[in-house]
Design brief:
single chain; 462 residues; alpha/beta; Rossmann fold; Helicase, Ruva Protein, domain 3; 5-stranded parallel sheet; 19 helices; 47% helix; 13% strand
Length: 462
């Protein structure tokens, strides 16, 4: 099923193809001139353009060139009369046209076959794009390291929910491996052979997030020089993972809710809707119940997303898995660094197991990677992570509510400029840590404008 644009100055051919292609469940639009086809290409995304070559004013070759310019992902099939045959052959050889078909009694059947070939080729292209996009981090259930009761329960949950088509909402602190769980659900599901596409909703401004998710048409905004397919369409038949869903604005929440309800997307600036078949998995490190109560997250969207809630345990709640994780990361990073590290120092391992790991598995992985890079012997010695930004802020004399502790000035005096700079830097780091790196939220926590925040970040080279 695809979006098809048919262009022919003979109305009877347009009507015949419209009826025949709709019977095959395609969505079809017809126009009777090349100029009208160009206008349609400006306002909507089409999978296939079927156009006659010989038309007055703007011919099919010009439509082909324009489609190639504004919608390079669209396949173009040329319909030719006998005297147009050489032009069609040259267009295909030049790489612009996907196929050419002579007008004959079997025209409809040949066009159907050509469209099917084009749609199959496009589906493979989209799969390849999605696979390449995430090839470096694709994971399965086997890559979820841990045999603690908490992890055994999580793995069983993944196996159970993977076979369903329901939307999943994954909860867990930053660094617990929420995306790893989402990928495992995908790999264990009937959609495993199709694309897995992930996006961090907190990493994009609202307008850019909309165009990334839903795509856009040429001219939708400054810089939109050609049509682009959104990630929902790229993930068709597969899974889309919406990380940090709590950072999505209320306006975007409304648009996402509509996509979940209607199962179709409308590209930015477009007039046509595109049907999608995508499994949605979302994740958050925040309390959505609290956000709903505060009015910063829509209740109806919450219920749409949280059909199946999945909780990922903190690392401090499964300390028995730490030795397994340490060995897993050692085997991952030691060969890559060209080092023959045979074991982990027992005292270091005891210290790692006793640490609270506020950054969870991600922090542990970074710690082992750093230790491997610095180790020169066959036994890995690991230093525990340095204090977090909040602890550094407290050490600098910043108390609850951001107040400076009394009695900080020594009898011999103090370099106030440096002292204030240290406090500012510590507060910036603390805000960034609390907001998981989302700078707009960090600015709000410090009750300063985003512009002022950016200025300070640049000033202190954070």
């Amino acid at each position: 099923m695809g979006n098809i644009l048919v262009c022919d100055d003979e109305r009877s051919i347009c009507e015949m193809l419209d009826i025949a292609l709709r019977r095959d469940n395609h969505r079809v639009e017809t126009v009777n001139s090349g100029e009208a086809a160009k206008r349609k290409l400006d306002s909507a995304l089409f999978d296939v353009v079927v156009t006659d070559i010989k038309m007055p004013h703007t011919d099919g070759i010009e439509v082909l060139r324009y489609a190639h310019q504004v919608s390079p992902d669209s396949a173009v099939i040329l319909i030719t009369a006998v005297d147009d045959y050489e032009a069609a052959v040259q267009a295909v050889k030049a790489g612009g046209a996907t196929d050419y078909i002579r007008k004959s009694p079997g025209l409809v059947d040949e066009i159907k076959l050509a469209i099917n070939r084009a749609m199959e080729k496009m589906a493979l292209s989209r799969q390849n794009f999605a696979f390449k996009r995430d090839a470096a981090t694709r994971n399965s259930l086997d890559n979820i390291v841990g045999d603690s009761p908490a992890m055994d329960k999580l793995k069983q949950t993944i196996r159970t929910v993977a076979s369903t088509q329901s939307t999943i909402l994954i909860y867990g602190e930053s660094g617990t491996g929420k995306e790893l769980v989402a990928r495992a659900v995908h790999v264990c599901s009937p959609r495993a052979a199709e694309p897995f596409v992930s996006i961090n909703c907190g990493a994009f401004p609202e307008t850019l997030l909309e165009s990334e998710l839903f795509g856009y048409v040429k001219g939708a905004f400054t810089g939109a020089n050609q049509n682009k397919r959104g990630l929902f369409e790229v993930a068709t038949q597969g899974t889309i993972f919406l990380d940090e869903i709590s950072e999505m604005t209320l306006t975007m929440q409304v648009k996402l809710l509509r996509v979940l309800q209607e199962r179709c997307v409308r590209p930015v600036g477009g007039s046509n809707e595109i049907a999608i078949d995508v499994r949605v998995i979302a994740a958050t490190n925040r309390d959505l119940d609290k956000l709903v109560a505060e009015g910063s997250f829509r209740e109806d969207l919450y219920y749409r997303l949280s059909v199946i809630p999945v909780q990922v345990p903190h690392l401090r709640d499964r300390r028995e898995d730490i030795p397994l994780l340490v060995n897993h990361f050692l085997k991952k990073y030691a060969p890559a660094a060209g080092k023959s590290i045979l074991r982990v120092n027992p005292r270091s391992l005891d210290a790692l197991c006793g640490y609270d790991w506020p950054g969870n598995v991600r922090q542990l992985e970074n710690t082992i990677e750093r230790a491997v890079a610095l180790e020169t012997g066959e036994e890995l010695r690991v230093d525990l992570p340095a204090e977090r930004p909040k602890a550094r802020a407290a050490a600098a004399g910043v108390g609850a509510g951001g107040t400076v502790s009394a009695g900080s000035v020594l009898p011999d005096g103090v370099d106030m400029e440096k002292y204030v700079a240290d406090i500012e830097r510590s507060l910036l780091l603390a805000a960034l840590a609390q907001s998981n790196g989302v700078q707009t939220r960090a600015a709000d926590l410090l009750k300063i404008s985003y512009r002022s925040f950016r200025h300070l970040v640049k000033k202190y080279e954070l």
